[in-house]
């Protein structure tokens, strides 16, 4: 103990350190003879080679046993999330605000929708003759040459006046703006287990009822056809497009309302407190311009 507490000068410490680095008395470098250093280096080199090989082998076995067409893990997503476009959101809530009197404001909205709909261009999609409206499109086998499965086309013309084909403003230059509702994909998910009702989008006005004259849906009745389900994953269906529903809201009065759009089907839950976007999307729609 006494030696530990003993005060030493800086010079002595430096000398000690120097002796530690190279001790000429017994020929050690950092406490070991060069010969020992060679052995220890060889030992560690071999150790790391073995560890790396074991690790690589484990990864290889894991990759080899995984099915590339199935998701690696999918334990949490039991019910899909729902999103609304244009995605010009506010700070915390989804706030879709535009000014129909200001061209700069409404072109921002319409170009957002136009960009979103780019993949839905009619001539970009290959025709699939096996899609039967109203029934799930199950595909056991890979039928196309590249080991993929077919996807039903969703031409944007199905969105009628909200397709942007006839009205490039999507209604944002006036008081009937279009919104697009999309449900996220989940591999193998079937939204409904019975034939009693269609899978469809239903929007309700949460507040500002007096400011909404009517709500229109495209395709008709806001239906998401069954032939777009199930989704088999990006590798199996590289050309898959989510079915969409356009909602056209006729704003009157103060031109502000809070809406909730829900995808209705018996397998889609929407009351999960922790997942506010599960099965539904709430948003405020506001037109600042005068009409
Ligand atoms: C909407 O745009 C018009 C025309 O640019 C402008 O006069 C008006 O102040 C804008 N309204 C709001 C609330 O920003
Ligand atoms: C698609 O239809 C053709 C005949 O029209 C049939 O030969 C083929 O098996 C069908 N493919 C699938 C995946 O159902
Ligand atoms: C198959 O893949 C090749 C190269 O990726 C592509 O050029 C070809 O169009 C694909 N065929 C089909 C039917 O998708
Ligand atoms: C909005 O744009 C469409 C298509 O360009 C046009 O037919 C319509 O008259 C415009 N509405 C207003 C209020 O300017
Ligand atoms: C739903 O309808 C399709 C065809 O209309 C039929 O093949 C299927 O068995 C029906 N499913 C149920 C659960 O009734
Ligand atoms: C939409 O939901 C509301 C409230 O749940 C309901 O009253 C209405 O009938 C539904 N409309 C459609 C078309 O399903």
Short synopsis of the structure:
This is Sodium/potassium-transporting ATPase subunit beta. The chain has 291 residues and is an alpha+beta fold.
Write the layout of secondary structure elements.
Elements: H1 2-5, H2 10-21, E1 22-23, E2 28-29, H3 34-65, E3 82-85, E4 95-98, H4 103-116, E5 178-183, E6 200-207, E7 212-218, E8 244-251, E9 256-264, E10 280-287
Parallel strand pairs: 4-10
Antiparallel strand pairs: 1-2, 3-5, 5-8, 6-9, 7-8, 9-10
Residues 202, 204 line the site of one 2-acetamido-2-deoxy-beta-D-glucopyranose.
What does this entry look like structurally?
The mean pLDDT is 88. The chain has two domains: 11-67; 82-287, Na, k-atpase alpha subunit (Immunoglobulin-like, Sandwich). 21% of the residues lie in helices and 20% in strands. The longest helix has 32 residues, at 34-65. Strands 3-5-8-7 form a four-stranded antiparallel sheet. Strand 1 and strand 2 (28-29) form a beta hairpin. It has four helices and ten strands, in the order ααββαββαββββββ.
């Amino acid at each position: 103990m006494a030696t530990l507490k003993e005060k030493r000068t800086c010079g002595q410490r430096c000398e000690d350190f120097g002796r530690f680095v190279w001790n000429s008395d017994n020929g050690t470098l950092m406490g070991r003879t060069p010969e020992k250093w060679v052995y220890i280096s060889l030992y560690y080199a071999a150790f790391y080679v073995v560890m790396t090989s074991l690790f690589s082998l484990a990864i290889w076995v894991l990759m080899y046993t995984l099915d590339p067409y199935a998701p690696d893990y999918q334990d949490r997503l039991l019910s899909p999330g729902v999103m609304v476009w244009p995605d010009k959101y506010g700070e915390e809530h989804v706030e879709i605000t535009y000014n129909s009197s200001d061209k700069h404001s409404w072109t921002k909205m319409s170009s957002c929708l136009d960009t979103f709909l780019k993949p839905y261009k009619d001539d970009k999609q290959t025709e699939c003759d096996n899609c039967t409206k109203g029934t799930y499109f199950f595909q056991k086998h890979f039928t196309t040459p590249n080991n993929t499965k077919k996807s039903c086309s969703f031409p944007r013309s199905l969105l009628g006046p909200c397709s942007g084909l006839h009205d490039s403003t999507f209604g944002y230059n006036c008081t009937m703006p279009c919104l697009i509702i999309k449900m996220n994909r989940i591999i193998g998910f079937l939204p409904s287990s019975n034939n009693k009702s269609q899978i469809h989008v239903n929007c309700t006005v949460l507040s500002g009822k007096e400011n909404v004259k009517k709500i229109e849906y495209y395709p008709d009745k806001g239906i998401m056809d069954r032939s777009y389900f199930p989704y088999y994953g990006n590798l199996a269906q590289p050309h898959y497009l989510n079915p969409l529903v356009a909602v056209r809201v006729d704003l009157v009065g103060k031109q502000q309302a809070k809406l909730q759009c829900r995808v209705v089907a018996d397998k889609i839950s929407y009351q999960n407190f922790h997942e506010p976007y599960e099965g539904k999307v709430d948003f405020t729609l506001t037109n600042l311009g005068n009409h």
